[in-house]
Design a protein that fits this description.
Number of helices of chain B: 18
Order of helices and strands of chain A: HHHHHEHEEHHHHEHHH
Number of strands of chain B: 22
CATH class of chain A: Mainly Alpha
Strand content of chain B: 15-25%
Radius of gyration of chain B: 24 Å
Structural class of chain A: mainly alpha
Strand content of chain A: 5-15%
CATH class of the largest domain in chain B: Alpha Beta
CATH topology of the largest domain in chain B: Rossmann fold
Shape of chain B: globular
Helix content of chain A: over 70%
CATH architecture of the largest domain in chain B: 3-Layer(aba) Sandwich
Helix content of chain B: 25-40%
Low-confidence stretches of chain B: 1-14
CATH topology of chain A: ABC transporter involved in vitamin B12 uptake, BtuC
Low-confidence stretches of chain A: none
Oligomer: heterodimer
Shape of chain A: globular
Number of strands of chain A: 4
Number of domains of chain B: 4
Strand order of the largest sheet of chain B: 6-9-10-3-11-12
CATH superfamily of the largest domain in chain B: P-loop containing nucleotide triphosphate hydrolases
């Protein structure tokens, strides 16, 4: 009798542990499962190094934005303007680069200044958002919604609705986009080394930096405290407004880095296409990764897996010949599932 | 006492026509992953009885109440109402059965009006739309019955906490209530409001409602209750009556040992310098022309009724509220802090009365909470995690905090231990002045005693302490001097060792004015 009860209690505890593991590491399990599924069903296409490389390369910019988004959400905010800021920063960066080069500037110098301008401008837009939220006391949703509309509009106006190409002869930009490091032993079908582009490496570098910032630095601790309970944070002597403003500056700078990545990859800036719906993909990745939309709780590595999961789903659906129109539906379902599974942790 | 009401019954042998108790709790047990919160608890509450339930934090009171109110199911045991099995699966089941609980943390919707809150979920309708007229009239009637002068159209969020509590009680009474559970209802009430509440409770008792009354304040338990159940470590220690017991006896039953030296001896103040001087302080809307000072090593009490501006004065000193006139001097140098951060940097710390809302961050770990206000000290950019942990463990040891793992979320601890961490987090930067706002609220007797000794120990090391409290005995027991506030002004100062509750209340209520 008592043995029976013990077994029952043991089983119940086992279930609880399994459930809490699912809540905590569900995103890891989902990632591994999706990867395995893709690898098994599409061994010839999916697992090819150049396929993996290309998938990462095409989405690295969204990934960088998602890292910034994670931090801003943990700090209790939201930034809907990231996609528009990315386009704005890319457009101005490209124009700066072209103007310098065509004005007779050194090619490398022009590219470096152009790219740095993009990052700086992104951070500046973030600062503006942050000040409007903290000093202006306007809800972040409204401020950044206005930013989404406004910055996109300015970008379209600058480019007259079209594309800004890199100046003729400006090859350094493209060679940066194609450059990277060869991982020894990784070769393609023709036995040529597969280059892992700088953009991919930047993405992982941003992930690592973001996670360390969150879990190891004072600023990260302040983000968590402010997002968890702003009033208690203020009573604890945390400069709440400064902390919140910084979170917007960081996500803005991430949008600037994403602008850099899209410039080097495309060698041009499409005023309507760059960063289009980036805010939604980024938020989706954050949610899938297990960060609470209410702030105070989250993780950058989870967001990274969220980005990879979204990439794999698109890839899977494309390879399975699912019409592109249906892909959004599947993503929507995945987001809901992710929240349902992870909800238990809050209670 | 028992046996003279119309509803009084005795358990007696099983005979036809037996009257069952209104609420019977039989052998209830409930376990959580780490603890056994309730272990075979039984309780009988008759109709027309006020049954006090007391115990230290963590004794299982809250769990028992949550089970009664349908928030959590028990693992084992049975519940019945007038002999009918009662198995609430949800709060709604409980209120349908007539079991209503009034929480320590109020459950009102801030953005709705008083009337809308009272009628929430049972709104009267006319032609399919809300009938605001009836709602208002009905609410006004209930509020009138309990002697509350609150306009039913007021937004609940705009009311002071004490009045919110009355709204909550009105809400409970607007339903058919058979069992009313009150969890620390007087914690936020002034003396006058408490008297009103007690009158109300007695009237409900006469109407045959079974009332379960939880409180830390033993005098009020003795005054109000017909029977008292003492819980300790999830078990019933004893069931007794006020006639058979007194406060000291109950306190030692709760703690499981005799409580001696509740208040530490007062240390003499040696220096005649002043650490903190407040003169003519005016906080718009809350306080006018407030004066007091604190010497190093001194514990100064700040007494006054709820709403007399005590908290606002403390908050203004540390920069949380604007000051329109007057001066704060720290070591004789005028200061005007812009924020709590600024105040902390200058060595003035404030521990809020609202522990869960402002004092601590409930979701963060004990370590994170302890070091948060003073994080710079652990590394300019990257806090040194091992040092943080060591510091936290140091505080756990120094303040005798019961905390199995410093890395676990602080919300898993009992109120008293959370409060100790709230104090520790403000002490970590080694302030020279500490303003403690209701530091013992919601804390059990044992932990209170420890907090008193902690505060006295800090003062002995030269810290200037301001202690705001609604509990006069602790101010009298602990403080060197007690400043009394009335309606935003300092009404007078009494000497701690010679103060009486009466002398303080006279000042707080303005009796002296009429005499003069």
């Amino acid at each position: 009798m008592s043995a029976g009860t013990n077994t029952q209690v043991g089983a119940a505890r086992g279930w609880r542990l399994a459930l809490s593991a699912l809540e905590r590491f569900g995103v890891v399990i989902a990632f591994v499962a999706l990867f395995a599924y893709n690898a098994i069903t599409q061994p010839d296409t999916f697992l090819k190094p150049e396929n993996l490389r290309n998938l990462l390369n095409q989405n690295a910019d969204i990934g960088v934005i998602a890292v910034g988004m994670t931090l801003v959400i943990i700090a209790g905010g939201i930034d809907l303007s990231v996609g528009a800021v990315m386009a704005f920063a890319a457009a101005v960066g490209m124009l700066t680069m072209n103007a310098l080069f065509e004005g007779g500037g050194n090619e490398t110098f022009s590219v470096v200044v152009g790219l740095a301008t993009g990052i700086g401008l992104g951070a500046a837009c973030g600062l503006l958002n942050g000040l409007l939220v903290t000093m202006g006391r306007i809800p972040a949703f409204i401020v950044t919604l206005a930013g989404l509309i406004g910055f996109r509009s300015v970008t379209l106006a600058i480019a007259e609705g079209g594309e800004i190409r890199a100046a003729d002869g400006l090859t350094a930009l493209q060679s940066f986009g194609r450059g990277g490091i060869d991982i020894p032993g990784v070769v393609d079908f023709y036995n040529q080394p597969v280059v892992f582009y700088w953009n991919i490496l930047i993405f992982f570098a941003v992930v690592i930096t973001g996670q360390l910032l969150l879990s190891r630095t004072r600023m990260g601790r302040h983000f968590i405290a402010v997002g968890s309970n702003e009033v208690a944070a203020r009573y604890s002597g945390i400069p709440v407004n400064r902390v919140r403003t910084w979170s917007y500056v960081i996500v803005g700078a991430c949008a600037g880095i994403a602008a850099l990545m899209s410039m080097t990859r495309m060698n041009s800036v499409s005023s309507s296409g760059v960063g289009h719906l980036a805010e939604l993909d980024a938020i989706a990745a954050v949610v899938i990764g297990g960060t609470a939309m209410t702030g105070g709780r989250g993780r950058v590595w989870g967001t990274m897996l969220g980005v990879l999961i979204l990439i794999m789903i698109s890839n899977m659906l494309t390879l399975a010949d699912v019409e592109v129109y249906w892909q959004g539906f599947v993503k929507g379902v995945i987001i809901i599932l992710a929240v349902l599974i992870q909800r238990g942790r809050a209670n | 006492m028992i046996g003279d009401g119309p509803f009084a019954t005795s358990a007696g042998p099983i005979l036809p026509g037996i009257v069952f108790p209104m609420l019977e709790v039989g052998d209830i047990s409930k376990s959580f992953p780490a603890v056994k919160a309730l272990d075979g608890v039984s309780l009988r509450v008759e109709a027309g009885e006020v049954h006090g339930v007391i115990g230290e934090n963590g004794a299982g009171k809250s769990t028992l109440m949550k089970i009664l109110a349908g928030i959590q199911p028990p693992d084992e045991g049975s519940l019945s109402l007038e002999g009918v099995p009662y198995r609430p699966r949800h709060v709604n089941d409980a209120s349908e059965a007539g079991v209503v609980m009034i929480h320590q943390e109020l459950n009102l919707v801030d953005d709705l009006s008083v009337a809308e809150n009272i009628m929430l979920g049972r709104e009267p309708r006319r032609f399919g739309v809300l009938d605001f007229g009836t709602m208002r009239k009905e609410s006004a009637r209930i509020l009138g019955e309990i002697g509350a002068t609150i306009d039913p159209r007021t937004r609940v969020g705009d009311l002071p906490v004490a009045q919110q509590q009355l709204v909550e009680i009105a809400k409970a009474l607007s339903q058919e209530t058979r069992v009313l559970i009150l969890d620390e209802p007087t914690a936020v009430l002034s003396e006058r409001e408490t008297t009103l509440l007690f009158r109300l409770i007695r009237r409900l008792r006469e109407q045959g409602v079974a009332i379960v009354y939880i409180s830390h304040l033993l005098p009020e338990i003795l005054e109000l209750c017909d029977r008292i159940t003492v819980l300790r470590d999830g078990r019933v220690v004893v069931e007794t009556t006020p006639a058979d017991s007194d406060a000291d006896h109950l306190a030692s039953l709760m703690v499981g040992r005799d409580l001696v030296d509740v208040y530490p001896p007062r240390m003499p103040i040696e220096s005649d310098t002043r650490r903190l001087t407040v003169s003519g302080l005016t906080v718009p809307g809350h306080a006018v022309d407030v004066d007091f000072d604190i010497a190093p090593g001194e514990i100064v009490g700040l007494a006054g009724l709820v709403g007399s501006g005590r908290t606002e004065v403390a908050e203004a000193i540390v920069g949380l509220r604007p000051i329109s006139a007057g001066e704060v001097r720290l070591d004789d140098e005028p200061v005007r802090f812009r924020s709590t951060r600024d105040a902390l940097h200058r060595g003035v710390a404030y521990v809020s009365e609202d522990r869960k809302g402002r004092g601590i961050l409930v979701d963060l770990s004990c370590i994170r909470n302890t070091t948060l206000p003073n994080l710079e000290a652990y590394g300019r950019l990257v806090p040194h995690r091992r040092r943080e942990r060591a510091a936290t463990e140091g505080w756990i040891e120094r303040l005798d905090i019961r905390c199995p793992d410093a890395r676990s979320p602080i919300r898993t601890l009992s109120g008293g231990n959370q409060q100790k961490f709230a104090v520790a987090s403000r002490l970590d930067s080694e302030p020279s002045v500490i303003l403690l706002d209701e530091p013992t609220r919601g804390v059990d007797v044992g932990a209170k005693r420890e907090l008193y000794h902690l505060i006295a120990g800090l003062a002995e090391k030269g810290l200037a302490c301001l202690m705001i409290s609604s509990e006069l005995p602790e101010l009298i027991g602990l403080c060197h001097r007690i400043v009394v506030m009335r309606q935003g002004r300092t009404a007078g100062v009494v000497d701690g060792p010679t103060a009486t509750e009466e002398s303080i209340m006279r000042l707080a209520a303005g009796v002296e004015d009429h005499a003069a």
